[in-house]
Amino acid sequence: MATLWVHVKEAAIEPGDAASVLAVVKVAGTSYCTQQNTVPKWNESFHFNVKGIDKNLQVEIYQMRFFRRFLVGLASVPLYNIRHSNKPREGLWSALFLPDTTGCLKPTTHRIKFDTHFELPSDIPDEELELLERKLDRLDGVLEEEISLIEKQHHKLATGKLSFPPAQRSEVTIQVTPESAGLGSGTAEVSKQRAGARSDVLAPPKHSGGVSPASSDGGDSDSLSADEHSHAPDSRHRWKSVVLSPTFQRKVMKKRQQGGGGGGSSVLADLVAQLSGWKKDKLDLNPLGFCKRSTDFMKRSKSVIDTRERQLGPHKIDEALRIHIYQNTIAALLYPTSDLSSHSFETWTAHKPTHCSVCQGLLWGLAKQGVKCAKCHKVTHGRCSSLVNQECHSSHDSKHSKRDSSLSAITEIMRRTQTNNVRLFQVLRMSFGISEGEHEECMSEIRKKILERAKNFDAVLSVKVIAAQGLNLKSISDRRIIVTVAVGNQKKSTKASKESNPVWNETFDFHCTNYHHTVQVRVWNERDTAVAKLALLLTKEGDMFLGEKIVEVRRIGSAFDAWYKLEKRTEDSQVSGVIKMSLSAQVAGEKIMAPFHVQYWSLHEQLFLYHHVWNKEPLVLISAKPDEVGDEVRLKHLPDVAQQIVDEFALRYSIEPIYRSMVHFNLLVNNYTVKSALKIMENLLKNLKFQIFSHAYEDNSIRAVGLAKLLEEYFEANNFGRDQFARVLEKLLNSLRLDFQRYRELYPASDHCKLEELVQSCEVMEAVNQFQRQVMGIMDVNLSEMILHSVKECLESTFEFIANSSIPPNTPTSLHPGLSKEGKPFHFFYKLLEMMYSVIQDDKSVYALCFARFCNFDLGHVSASELWRHFGKTLQGLFDEEQNRGIYPPAEYMQLLFTIKNFYDSVISVLPKELVGEVADYPVWFLPCIRHWLSEFKQQTVGIVSSAWDNDRSSGFPRYEGHTFSSSVFDMFCFLQQGYDMLHSLESNNAELNHQYHYEFSLMIRNVLQHYLDTTAGYFPQAVEDSLHKACMLLNNLHVLRQNLQDLYGVMGGEKSGPECTEVLQSFQTTVLSKQLTHWSSFLAKSFAGDVVKAVASMQTELIKVKGSCSRDEAKAIATPLLDMFTEKALVIAEASDPALLQRVIKELSMVIMEGIHSMLLPSLRLKQQRSEYPFHSYSAHQCAALETVLDILKEVITGNQQVALKQSVLDKSIRRLRAVISIYRQTTEKLIAEFITYDNAQSEQSIDVPCGEVSLAFNANRHISTRELDVTVRVISADNLKPFSAGGAAALKPYIEIALLQSNSSSCKKFSTVYKSGSTSLHFNQAFNFSLASNVEGWELQVTAKNHSRFGADKVIGVALVNAFDLKCNGNISLEMSSCLALCERRGALLNVLSQRTNDEGAKEFVALKTQCRTHDLTELTQQSLSTTALQ
Predict the structure, then answer these.
(1) How far is Cα 884 from Cα 929, in angstroms, rounded to an integer?
(2) Contact by Cβ (8 Å): 840, 860
């Protein structure tokens, strides 16, 4: 048995599903459970004893709710996929899957992190354990390579690049087992009908339902066809034959015996068993279940790389120049400078004054003053012999002349070189594309030229001394800098310059006939002193030496401005700086087409392209730091043979090493895509920096002017050119920047070599930046910002590509691809999101590691934000147009929104706010779609409500599961709750948009509830007629509707749902639902009006019989009909109504009862249809007292019922109103009239219902001093704009004015009338009337009535006006606007009605007749109109 360890770390559960969570680990029937935690973190370990590895390890996540387990998801790992080790790891995140009703597994958004491993034997030494683990890992790697090979062959089969025999193809079938639909470990068993044939291959997992990792909609898919499976090599059998062979088994048994423990045997046995199976795919840890890299994208990357490499090619140069360079190279190789014999110095005694050929100093001493070359007889100081840089060109032979000896030596050298270096000439010939015949001709010609030059050399040398800089002048006060140029015995000098960086621009010409002569250029500081003159006599040098440069004549070519480093003459010389000269040699019979530096560049380039571009040879690696510094540095840039060629050319023509390195760097820049070029460029830059700094430090130790100035001078004096090298570096940066803008194409995530190249590109850019900043003094660019800009450009092109790849086929160009009807709805957006996720995952897990050291941003965050920004541009505003919202059902739009929200929550929401903003932007794009969905949802809800209503109506509105309401209300709010749950799942961190969502949903709720109210209102009258139970159930539904709306508002967040939503719902609840409930409660109560009238009429009959005082029991007996009716109705209502609704209905019933009693007291104020219900009666004082007792009893009965529990304050107002009416019956006529007049005088203005004209009056009031009486004179001046009657018009009018004086202390009135006049609506009367008012009169008023005189019958009233006592006290004119009748408040109407019931009182009858006269002559309508428009005072 083997021990399997499982370490359960944690799980990622969606917040909406958070609860008490536990994990269950199962292996072969054995299971363990973790502890229950509200936070899904356990860090618990379990171990199992496993006999075989043909089973699966299954980890299940459960939630505990209501003491029951609910499966959240499960993950499964085959045991043969589990590693063998004793070292635990952090673990991996694995996606959870959930089986549906059909048993198929669908991916979820939950994940779990766990680690597994088989335990290795504890008695094995650590070294052997590590060795065993490495072997297992290596074996896994081999199996992975085999699988990769199989997949490549499958891909070739799929693309038609690999043929397959038709006969064999027909015999192949694929059978997908049920296990292949599992969790990323599915396999397809391929069985051949051919006997004995079997092939087991790896197939991608098949997902049932949901979004599969591979595109299931006909797009790019990684699934394998039958043809692909059938052609897979059976590598498994090869491994199995090796492992199960007798030899291997004997080794296993031997290992078991040596181990001495049982653990080792079980592990090796499991290893054998594992090798008999296949290495399956790892679990798909993709949390969203999106596909991996697109196949089209990989093909495009490969094509881009091929195109990029094909762009490399040879640099074309002029053919004549190419041949010229070839000939000069042949000359350098035939007569190599490196092969010339060196000097053979020996100690020598001078017998006469002799000067050193190096320093020109005198050889001092009596004997052995210096050294002398035995071959060429060159004499120098002993200390100067090491500074001799000219080769020995001749040998001393007494039998031959000096010239003949030199020619023989040259001939021998060329012969030996041509014989020993055949490979050099062959490589040179092939690199230049020269045929063998042409090469031989060229060789012969060059040999002749070399010998001819050595024999008969004749040339004109031109030396132009241009400038110098960096000279060691720190100890010189008087500067007179000159340059001497010597060729053989010829010597010339420039003018003196006093500048620290002198400029001369002087040219000197020399005639030279010796091939071995040199051009000696020395820089001096001229001194005009006695000491200098003495030194001149002794040493031939009286000036201060600043440096020299010696150039052999044979190395001089065409004119070329070049900088030369000044060299020291002795070990003690303090020399620094460079000198700029242009050297040219016009040799007789020869033509030089280009300077040697230019020729070297072309030669180096030709050899580079030949080896590394055309022949694809690997580049030569260069160390980052050379071993030596100075002219002795010989970097190896090219392969051995090519390097020897360029070395000879450079040595022959004095090409400095730094120039050579810069040329090689330039070639690498032009061909940077060659393998290893980036790494070599990085090292070469570091090497150049090291050399430059070494020279700068050396010069700075002499001059002490500062490193920055020396670096600047050094690059200014560089023959390659500072600006030119800066352009090379800038070209490299631009090339790499452009590559970074296509990094996903040029450096595929699956190609490790290309990824290493990407890292090297970053390193090169970093090295270039450092070189520019530290060496060249150029302000470097911010590498992180440059990478960020390039990444954004790449992501833009990547998004464009994946968007084009996601467009369904046959989509019209004029149609947005997201609206294409090809395939499933919104196929474009779903596939685009999948590919976006793949790109982001690549950037996060692969490319971010490559850029990590060189940028200060998170590539995964930038990738997600940029792709999301481009995705937003693709989708933004798409659904604003109405026609785009009707292509698919609204549910499809919502499904797309949910998918985008899932992508945003898992990928975008975790990004920093400065990248994606504070609030989510995607919900705004779908706001029109949400409105469209809400509109359809409203229609669906209305349909469901109507259907539920019809069911309730047909079944008589039964109670729903014992509740007080019917099922229609429950169904309606269940559906509304489902709609809100969906809307709530769309909420984001955009608070303003969430408020908009709630507002739109509140409008939908209002419309649905209004539909329910309208349906209820249309049926309620019929329900009242049918049965009291139905009416009460409808009221219960309205009441529950109001409560559920309040609860739903709370679920929506209350005030947090936004002010607009709050306003809509609260306004609907208060102004609609509450009023509707009150209205229909009142309607139900008023339906009992007939019973109330009968009961009140019975009570009135008993009340009229009361003649004396009445006891409480007698009063209760009087109220018995009314009490019985109330009790009966209240019991029925209480049984059918909701307890919270019962008070409202009882209150309305009480109001109906009180109104009935009020109508009994004031029959003239009752409604039209109730006009004849009660007999006309004037109640006595005893009857009024009995009625008050009845009211008290009624109040006690209504408010004392515990089931009703109606508050006493509800009835107080109605009872006070009835008591006020009862009090009127107890007063005399005079008091009632006085109260009436007092009410009139309290009114500042009289209300006008219908204007009927104007009357102008004049008042004159005088009070007697003795009697205090008031004499009033009223003059009727005119009547204007009198309103004529419909019959006859103005011509039929005969108006006159009647004035009646009413006093509060008298029931009689005084009347005065003018004469009538006819024919007009505006008349002039000018008649005066006098009357006196006693001093004890408290109130009075003057009523003015315009009447129409009628010869037959009573006069008709045209209009009425009233003048109160305040107006009478004021003298002057007054204009009164007349109304059709006098407006009466409820109190005055009650007074007038009580007076009208006193038929035996003439004063009361006259007063009532005066106050009730009106244009329509209808007192009932007049009184009702007054009561409906005036409040109780």
Answers:
(1) 9
(2) yes
In the chain, the amino acid numbered 367 is A
Q: What residues contact 1364, with CB distance under 8 A and at least 6 apart?
A: 1240, 1241, 1243, 1341
What is the strand order of the sheet 92-99 is part of?
A: 30-33, 20-27, 56-65, 68-78, 92-99, 105-118, 2-12, 41-50
Question: Which has the closest alpha carbon to 1295: 1344, 1225, 1229?
Answer: 1344
1177 exposed, middle or buried (CB, 10 Å; 0-12, 13-18, 19+)? Answer: middle
Q: What is the Rg, in whole angstroms, of the alpha carbon atoms belonging to the chain?
A: 59
Cα→Cα distances 981→76, 1052, 1272, 1387, Å:
33, 10, 82, 57
Phi and psi at 66, nearest 5°, equal 55, 45
Query: Quick one: CA torsion of 1027, 1029, 1030, 1035, rounded to 10 degrees?
Result: 130
Give the amino acid at 223: S
Contact predicate 282/184, CB 8 Å:
yes
DSSP 25-61: EEETTEEEE---BSS-EEEEEEEEEES-SSSEEEEEE
Q: In this structure, is the dihedral angle defined by the CA atoms of residues 943, 949, 953 and 956, taken in order, positive or negative?
A: positive
Buried b (16+ CB within 10 A) or exposed e, 967-992: bbbbbbbebbeebbeebbebbbebee
Taking 60 as the threshold, does the pLDDT of residue 1063 lie above it?
A: yes
State how far the Cα of 902 lies from the Cα of 896, in Å rounded to an integer: 10
* Cα 1187 from Cα 1179, distance rounded (Å): 10
Identify the CA nearest to 372 among candidates 393, 346, 394: 346
Q: Give the type of residue at 122.
A: S
Nearest-10 crossing angle of helices 890-903, 967-985: 40
Instruction: State both tokens at 861.
Output: 């965050």
The pair of three-digit structure tokens given for residue 560, joined into one six-digit string: 């070329």
Count of CB atoms situated within 10 Å of the CB of 65:
10
* Amino acid sitting at position 525: N
Closest among 566, 329, 325 to 467, alpha carbons compared:
566
pLDDT for residue 1164? 55
**Residue among 75, 109, 271 nearest 185 (CA):** 75
Long-range own/partner contacts, residues 323-328 (CB < 8 A, 24 or more apart): 324/592, 324/593, 324/594, 324/599, 325/594, 325/599, 325/602, 325/603, 325/606, 326/428, 326/432, 326/434, 326/442, 327/442, 327/445, 327/446, 328/596, 328/599, 328/649, 328/653
- Cβ atoms of 1219 and 1188 within 8 Å: the answer is yes
Phi/psi at 519 (5° precision): -100, 110
How far apart, in Å, do the first and last CA atoms of the chain sit?
102
List the 490-493 sheet strands across, edge first: 490-493, 481-487, 518-525, 544-552
CB 567 within 8 A of CB 548: yes
Q: What does the alpha-carbon distance between residue 196 and residue 198 come to, in Å, rounded to a whole number?
A: 7
Instruction: Extract the tokens encoding 922.
Output: 């995607």
Task: With a cut of 50, say whether residue 259 has pLDDT above it.
Answer: no
Structural contact between residues 1326 and 1290, judged by C-beta atoms closer than 8 angstroms: no
Q: How many CB atoms lie within 10 A of CB 1260?
A: 13
Residues in the chain, total: 1433
Q: By the 8 A CB rule, do 938 and 979 touch?
A: no
Range of weakest confidence among 248-257, 795-804, 1047-1056: 248-257
Give 796-833 as a 3 state SS string.
HHHHHHHHHHHCCCCCCCCCCHHHCCCCCCCHHHHHHH
Q: Which pLDDT score, from 0 to 100, does residue 251 have?
A: 47
Collect all residues with Cβ–Cβ distance below 8 Å to 1195 and sequence separation of at least 6. 1208, 1211, 1215
What separation in angstroms does the CA of 108 have from each of 8, 186, 832?
19, 18, 20
Considering Cα of 786, then 792, then 798, then 804, what sign does the dihedral take?
Answer: negative
- Say yes or no to pLDDT of 565 above 50: yes
pLDDT, greater one: 200 or 1226: 1226
Residues whose CB is less than 8 angstroms from the CB of residue 190 and which lie 6 or more positions away in sequence, other chains included: 172, 173, 174, 175, 199, 200, 201, 226, 229, 230, 232
